[in-house]
Design goal:
The chain is built from 18 helices and 52 strands. The protein is an alpha+beta fold. Pfam families: ArgoL2, ArgoMid, ArgoN, Gly-rich_Ago1, PAZ, Piwi.
């Protein structure tokens, strides 16, 4: 038999006891990712449903249900019944793992085929059975048309399952059992779709276009352990929310019982509920009692000196074995999904030691010793990892307050606004006391006292004896408080107040500042983060060397080895596209060099017209003559560049409004000559979409969604844009497609996609026959959710315009918020770096550091100006246009040269860039009415995409989102966000 190697191994391991199973016929459906579904027929109970569409199969209690419907579908088995949900454009099949089913038939002939038309996603192995073995089976339908989905079998089969495709795939199965189909049909119910069933497109091969080179990435190869890993559930009571406390409890447990009760194992702990060991522990379940001294007292408890002890009960119970075999299969490209459990184990093990050395923030680690600290002002400083973030300086609280207020706080009393600012900055900050020698007890600030220190008093015993704070500190600690006019820090609560004078407190090191930075702090942070590539590479190598993974006891325990050299990766440098300017200019086209060019001797390919304009001089230092000279030179330069620009400024009527000129600076030569693959051959619309969220601390401000779409096929340089407000931190774009009830028109459809498709039709006279959708701002954990929701919205928007209108869609996520950096293999080779020392624009990587099987790539499309360039990461989530790697990479790189704001290539594809700008601009339409707390004032503007008269949209929790002001039609048509 010719079977997948995985299937063969499992069958061989089952032994001779399965050889006699002659009454079973198997249809084995697998794929190149080593996900194998085994579908079995027992006692001839096979049920079929005939229809057009794609084939899905599910087994329920030994009965095979072969289901083929119009469209794509989700299939589930619930309480022994088959449940079907039809979903336009998406498919879900529940998998039966190979080890759950015993299948073997020695008299069966096997033929292996590849479903090439599905992009290589599915391999199908048909086990064909001789008819005399199953006399109850009738002969299936024979087709004279050769199957187009499969390679030809070596010879004609006794019972072929024929597939035929003409426009749509058509397939017919004859009933293989005597049971009537109606019984199966009655079992079919409706079930919700599953996002996990969606399979992202496989990589259609690696790209070959461009000049090959080698680059270095800040990725480090790891040697995986060949050990038996075990997972244990951890329960700690009383339950605490702090991972730090949980880790302290587990550290104490391991210190006390590692060799006596844990068999010498050094476990890795995630700080929550899971513990991992390299081998089994000597027990299946065990309870420990751990006593921990509490270093932090958030409730106070008076001014006593005794540190509180807390008793914890820890239960460790065996949960499962952690199998790293699937991770190796995934990395080898033989498994579709990344085994999250195995990745989690490796992450926990490698994070264990850095967690004790550094300050963990999310997925990053920060330390004041990794690079120099940089003061940001107002008591903040920056620490670096691969990224930088702001930390509160470990200053005496008195000094912190002085920096915060930018004055000497002993000169005059604090105002009410000063108190509010101090309270806002210090609330939740952890401090340690300095007046008790080596006993540095820690507290968390809950607020400020309303009274000055000299006015505060508290009871010191049960008899009602009262002392002032000043008197208590002098008598108990011999400490004389100097700043008696300042308020005290409140570290207790209203029931148990606990006062600490500012001058006896120091801020604990390593506390991240999570509030919004001001402009000066942002400027200072940008300065320190701006590192040349060679400097950053050396810093990375020093950090890896400092981590000393070869000495890491946790890595050694689990057998993980880390290569301390930067990964060398094959790359290619894509050539820049030739850009077309107006034929009346001295230079009609230009070939950019190192990602940039200029407008000298060139005229805009489609210059705009400016009839009325004015210049207002707000500066006292600029003479009117200088301003007039500037106006004259501006008009002359605009005319030289190809614009119809009035020479003399004319003050327009008061009713006029500032407008964008429109027009186009330049277009791609390949666009004019119709040489862009999968764009120039038929009308194609390119979308860009993004959602911007409020700053940290703004708990009720809405998120802003923006969608732009090209309007000038085949040039694809002008983009119309729409914006919409939606629920706070909602990443899914809610306004892509909308349906509402109108009292006069009935059911009405609308939304951003529909409106932009109509706009494209009006501008070009043709409806789009292809859709390319670049989606910005989506994290990897949201891929499935965003694709399911937004692709469905695109489909519905198209169908609402015209029945059966479903142009093929390519959905690409653009990511900039990642830590991957690429460096030249030789920083001294001027042929491989730009002026800033970065890799050349057009450098693309689609191997090693990319997904093992899915269609993604890193593209550095811009020339660096300062600092280290960050390549954009593009991940294809849906591709009905069947792009090759070269086609999509070249299209994306070439589009980066069409950005309207400058004569440089940009770092991300312009549609996504424009969507980001539009969303950023739209936030200013709301910000003036946003309070300091982030809550929105009520507004009466009508939202675009909502029916007339609707003042706000309701979201989950019945919270109203104030809509954005409506954009006028003439504004939508121009790039108002640029």
């Amino acid at each position: 038999m010719v079977l997948h190697s995985e299937l063969r191994e499992v069958l061989n391991s089952m032994g001779e006891d399965v050889v006699g199973c002659l009454n079973r016929v198997a249809v084995v459906v697998g794929n190149t990712r080593a996900v194998v579904d085994i579908i079995r027929a027992v006692e001839g109970k096979v049920h079929t449903i005939q229809a057009e569409g794609l084939l899905s199969i599910r087994v329920v209690e030994g009965q095979v249900h072969i289901i083929q419907v119009v469209g794509l579908l989700t299939i589930r088995a619930v309480e022994d019944q088959v449940h079907i949900t039809q979903v336009v454009g998406l498919l879900s099949i529940n998998h039966v793992t190979i080890k759950d089913v015993v299948v073997h038939a020695p008299e069966v002939e096997c033929h292996s085929h590849t479903m090439a038309d599905l992009g290589g996603v599915v391999d199908v192995v048909f086990l064909q059975v001789h008819q005399e073995q199953f006399p109850s089976c009738t002969k299936p339908h024979m087709s004279n048309t050769k199957p187009r989905w499969f390679h030809q079998p070596h010879r004609e089969l006794a019972h072929p399952l024929s597939l035929r495709r003409s426009g749509q795939v058509q397939q017919q199965f004859q009933q293989l059992a005597t049971r009537d189909q109606s019984s199966t049909s009655q079992a079919i119910q409706i079930a919700p779709p599953s996002s996990k069933s969606v399979r992202f497109p496989l990589r259609p091969g690696k790209g070959t276009y461009g000049d090959r080179c080698i680059v270095k990435a800040n990725h480090f190869f790891a040697e995986l352990p060949d050990k038996d890993l075990h997972q244990y559930d951890v329960s700690i009571t009383p339950e605490v929310t702090s991972r730090g406390v949980n880790r302290a409890v587990m550290f104490e447990l391991v210190t006390l019982y590692r060799y006596s009760h844990l068999g010498g194992r050094l476990p890795a702990y995630d700080g929550r509920k899971s513990l991992y060991t390299a081998g089994p522990l000597p027990f299946a379940s065990r309870t420990f009692e751990i006593t921990l001294q509490d270093e932090e007292d958030s409730l106070g408890g008076g001014q006593g000196t005794q540190r509180r002890e807390r008793l914890f009960r820890v239960v460790i119970k065996f949960a499962a074995r952690a199998d790293l075999h699937h991770l190796a299969m995934f990395l080898a490209g033989r498994q579709a999904d990344a085994p999250q459990e195995a990745l989690q184990v490796l992450d926990i093990v490698l994070r264990e030691l850095p967690t004790t050395r550094y300050s963990p923030v999310g997925r990053s680690f920060y330390s004041p010793n990794l690079g120099r600290r940089q003061q940001l002002g107002e008591g903040l400083e920056s620490w670096r990892d691969m990224s930088s973030t702001a930390f509160i300086e470990p200053l005496p609280v008195i000094d912190f307050v002085a920096q915060l207020l930018n004055r000497d706080i002993s000169v005059r009393p604090l105002s009410d606004s000063d108190r509010v600012k101090i309270k806002k900055a210090l609330r939740g900050v952890k401090v340690e006391v300095t007046h008790r020698g080596n006993m540095r007890r820690k507290y968390r600030i809950s607020g400020l006292t309303s009274q000055a220190t000299r006015e505060l008093s508290f009871p010191v015993d049960d008899r009602g004896t009262v002392k002032t704070v000043v008197q208590y500190f002098l008598e108990t600690y011999g400490f004389s408080i100097q700043h008696t006019t300042l308020p005290c820090l409140q570290v207790g609560n209203q029931q148990r107040p606990n006062y600490l004078p500012m001058e006896v407190c120091k801020i604990v090191e390593g506390q991240r500042y999570s509030k919004r930075l001001n402009e000066k702090q942002i400027t200072a942070l940008l300065k320190v983060t701006c590192q040349r590539p060679q400097e950053r590479e050396l810093d990375i190598l020093r950090t890896v060397s400092h981590n000393a993974y070869h000495e890491d006891q946790y890595a050694q325990e689990f057998g993980i080895k880390i290569d301390e050299r930067l990964a060398s990766v094959e790359a290619r440098v894509l050539p820049p596209p030739r850009l077309k300017y107006h034929d009346s200019g001295r230079e009609k086209d230009v070939l950019p060099r190192v990602g940039q060019w200029n407008m000298m001797n060139k005229k805009m390919v489609n210059g705009g017209r400016v009839n009325n304009w004015a210049c207002i001089n707000f500066s006292r230092n600029v003479q009117d003559s200088a301003a007039r000279g500037f106006c004259h030179e501006l008009a002359i330069m605009c005319q030289i560049s190809g614009m119809d620009f009035a020479l003399e400024p004319v003050l327009p009527p008061l009713t006029a409004r500032p407008e964008h000129v429109g027009g186009r600076n330049t277009v791609l030569v390949d666009a004019l000559t119709r040489r862009i693959p999968l764009v120039s051959d038929r009308p194609t619309i390119i979308f860009g979409a993004d959602v911007t969220h409020p700053h940290p601390g703004e708990d009720s401000s809405p998120s802003i969604a923006a969608v732009v779409a090209s309007q000038d096929w085949p040039e694809v340089t002008k983009y119309a844009g729409l914006v919409s407000a939606q629920a706070h931190r909602q990443e899914l774009i809610q306004d892509l497609f909308k349906v509402w009830q109108d009292p006069h028109r009935g059911t009405v459809t609308g939304g951003m996609i529909k409106e932009l498709l109509i706009s494209f039709k009006r501008a070009t006279g043709q409806k789009p026959q292809r859709i390319i959708f670049y989606r910005d701002g989506v994290s990897e954990g949201q891929f499935y959710q965003v694709l399911l929701y937004e692709l469905d919205a695109i489909r519905k928007a198209c169908a609402s315009l015209e029945p059966n209108y479903q142009p093929p869609v390519t959905f690409v996520v653009v990511q900039k918020r990642h830590h991957t950096r690429l460096f030249a293999n030789n920083h001294n080779d001027q042929r491989t770096v730009d002026r800033s020392g970065n890799i050349l624009p057009g450098t693309v990587v689609d191997s090693k550091i990319c997904h093992p099987t899915e269609f993604d790539f890193y593209l550095c499309s811009h020339a660096g100006i300062q600092g280290t360039s960050r390549p954009a990461h593009y991940h294809v989530l849906w591709d009905e246009n069947k792009f090759t790697a070269d086609e999509l990479q070249t299209l994306t790189n070439n589009l980066c040269y069409t950005y309207a704001r400058c004569t440089r290539s940009v770092s991300i594809v312009p549609p996504a860039y424009y969507a980001h700008l539009a969303a950023f601009r739209a936030r200013f339409y709301m910000e003036p009415e946003t309070s300091d707390s982030g809550s929105m004032a009520s507004g009466a503007a009508t939202s675009r995409g909502l029916p007339p008269g609707v003042r706000s949209a309701r979201v989950a929790g019945n919270v109203a989102v104030r809509p954005l002001p409506a954009l006028k039609e003439n504004v939508k048509r121009v790039m108002f966000y640029c």
